[in-house]
Automatic annotation (TrEMBL):
It comes from the Bacteria. Residues 6-233 form the ABC transporter domain. PANTHER family: ABC TRANSPORTER G FAMILY MEMBER 20 ISOFORM X1, ATP-BINDING CASSETTE, SUB-FAMILY H, MEMBER 1. This is ABC transporter ATP-binding protein. Transmembrane segments: none annotated. Keywords: ATP-binding, Nucleotide-binding. It comes from Georgenia deserti.
């Protein structure tokens, strides 16, 4: 089924004394992998939280899959993986997932809360009986991702899922995101690692709460006459300085 992704108008989020999101207009298409890139403190988490509907916003509108962000009916349709893994260390991988699946069912959600299915999607079928506290960082990220996939979300929001992982693990996680998008899920991934840009269908570059650019990776390089996303970002900052 076609849906409308995310539509943001005149969004402002103030956190402490900072305009974490400063007058942002943004459309994120459905069915693609969109990368939200920007340095630490540029407002990525605040923007993602506004999309998921857990951020108090000062003004503006955020519409997700055709509904106001945070609407109760979006709860099942949106999966969110925060920066800190939401995994119980004293349970095995499968026990963690069964626990979260039971929570979904207790809310009346019976839509494919299949533990085996999500374990296979994130490539952890073999690790089901392993205690979470014995997992590597990369495996922990995958368990968090698996919990968010239990409800078969139409939109998956991932906040810096590859932070701290080595390049090989990062590459394999990105392949997993691609596979999830190919199944029809809209994926939004934040990162401050610019070389992850080439893995996205669409890029949104953020700086100081503002959108510096919204373009495909190729458009971005062409527009800035640069050869990689990091140089493109620096070139755009230079233009604004
Ligand atoms: N709880 C808070 N109280 C006060 N200021 C905050 C709070 N959370 C975030 N901020 C400020 O809001 C701005 C945006 O923060 P945000 O976490 O959205 O950025 P980010 O791009 O996700 O950063 P990072 O990559 O480090 O997670 C920053 O200047 C930050 O200092």
């Amino acid at each position: 089924m076609m849906n409308s992704g995310v539509r943001i108008r005149s969004l402002r989020v103030v956190r402490g004394r900072t305009r974490a999101v400063d007058d942002v207009d943004l459309d994120i298409p459905a069915g693609q992998v969109t990368g939200l890139l920007g340095p630490s403190g540029s407002g990525k988490t605040s923007l993602l939280r506004a999309i998921v509907g857990v951020q108090i916003v000062d003004s503006g509108e955020v519409e997700v899959l055709g509904r106001p962000a945070g609407s109760p009916e979006l709860r099942r349709r949106v999966g969110y993986v925060t920066q800190s893994p939401s995994v119980y260390e004293d349970l095995t991988v499968a026990e963690n997932l069964r626990y979260f699946a039971r929570l979904l069912r207790s809310r009346g959600d019976t839509s494919g809360a299949g533990v085996e299915r999500v374990l296979a999607t994130v490539g952890l079928t073999e690790a089901g009986s392993q205690l979470a506290r014995t997992l590597s960082g990369g495996q922990l990220s995958r368990v968090s991702l698996a919990t968010a996939l239990l409800g078969s979300p139409e939109l998956l929001v991932l906040d810096e899922p590859t932070v701290g992982l080595d390049p090989v693990l990062r590459a394999s996680l990105w392949q997993t995101f691609r596979g999830i998008a190919e199944q029809g899920t809209t994926v939004i991934v934040s990162s401050h690692v610019m070389d992850e840009a080439s893995r996205c269908d669409l890029l949104v570059l953020l700086r100081q709460g503002r959108v510096l650019a919204r373009a495909t990776p190729d458009e971005l390089l062409e527009r800035t006459a640069t050869e990689d996303a990091e140089s493109a970002f620096l070139s755009l900052i230079g233009d604004r300085a």
